[in-house]
Amino acid sequence: MPKKFNEATDQKRWIAGAGVFVILALVGFLSNSYVISLMTIVLLFTFMGQSWNLMLGIGGQLSIGHSLFVGLGAYSVAVLNIKYGISPWIGLVVGLTIAGFVGALLAWLSFRFEVRGIYFALLTIAAAEFARIMFSGWEFVGGMQGMFFQAPTGKTDILMLRGDARFYYFVALGVAAIGVLGTELISRSYLGYVWRAMRDDDEAARALGVRTFRHKIIVISISAGSAAVGGGILALVQGSIFPDSIMGMGISVDVLIGPVVGGLGTAFGPFVGSLAAIPLNHTMSAIGDSLGIPGLNNIAYGIILILVVWFLPDGIWPAIVRLYRSIPPLPRLKISQPRKVEE
């Protein structure tokens, strides 16, 4: 009986997930340019939030400097495309490789010398800040003046990943779907069980024979590489990159706000959190600029975090799931069979 119940529940989850992405595809066809542009950012931060969710929500390793990996992906795409005319597809692969290597190296150095927990998180901030300062003074990548992509011609070029806002919306929708599906599959795989064991009790996992040192490097490397892919696509969508905007603390906050608000360790949490936080961020930024109140969006972020931690400590998505499960099923109508008339 439990097995049948799980299979039925899984079927409903897959159908519901597919339904969400069908609706999002319709949004891309039916919405205006502003909604499409805003939802593109939401979907990209859903994907990048999945990378952070993988590292902390499943792997148990806290990073507050994820902008390092986002920036490495963005600059890999920009340098190869702007300076050498190489397809962004190649740039995404290069960015993924570089960020994955940097993440693995950072993890190896940290855990090799027993730098764990909050100290590892501080190390990621320091690494991100070091990279931001380095790229700010590096003339080859534009320094503080940044780098600018060629203005789009309006024609869709899949090879060079160029197109209009609607084209980038569907690119972002595709990577967001890959992120959600990847998180769901990993969480149900052997790696997912091992990483959750490592997250819940590192010493107990080691006692059971789990090579936690190796698995920490693997999960951080995968997380860093996927964040770099999101950063590369974000650079193309924005059309330009600057060290402060792509490697600043603001990007790290935008990446982690989705999983924290939506629900850590869940597949749909980063999407729900990004859908709640990113539009609010843009709206409060616009209101703050019009009123002359800088940082109003950061105040809004703080209020959201306080409310979520206070009332929904598991996040919005787990609360939605609990609410759905608490709704009693509709009673089935009993249709009585007609009596046979005796002759």
Write the layout of secondary structure elements.
Layout: H1 2-30, H2 33-58, H3 67-84, H4 88-112, H5 118-136, E1 147-148, H6 165-188, H7 190-200, H8 202-207, H9 212-238, E2 240-241, H10 243-246, H11 249-262, H12 269-291, H13 296-311, H14 316-326
Antiparallel strand pairs: 1-2
Helix pairs in contact: 1-6, 2-6, 2-9, 2-11, 2-12, 3-4, 3-5, 3-9, 4-9, 6-7, 7-9, 11-12, 12-13
What does this structure look like?
With 343 residues, the protein is mostly helical. The protein is 74% helix and 1% strand. It has 14 helices and two strands, in the order αααααβααααβααααα. The protein has helices at 2-30, 33-58, 67-84, 88-112, 118-136, 165-188, 190-200, 202-207, 212-238, 243-246, 249-262, 269-291, 296-311, 316-326; strands spanning 147-148, 240-241. It has a two-stranded antiparallel sheet with strand order 1-2. Helix 3 packs antiparallel against helix 4 and helix 7 (190-200) packs across helix 9 (212-238). The longest helix is centred in the N-terminal third of the chain and has 29 residues, at 2-30. The chain is globular.
Task: Quickly list its features.
343 residues; mainly alpha; disordered N terminus
Query: What does the average pLDDT come to?
Result: 89
Strand content: under 5%
**Segments where pLDDT lies below 50 for 5+ residues?**
1-5
The spatial strand order of the largest sheet comes to 1-2
Number of helices: 14
| Overall 3D shape | globular
H/E element sequence: HHHHHEHHHHEHHHHH
Largest sheet: 2 strands, antiparallel
Structural class: mainly alpha
What is the radius of gyration?
A: 23 Å
Number of DSSP strands?
2
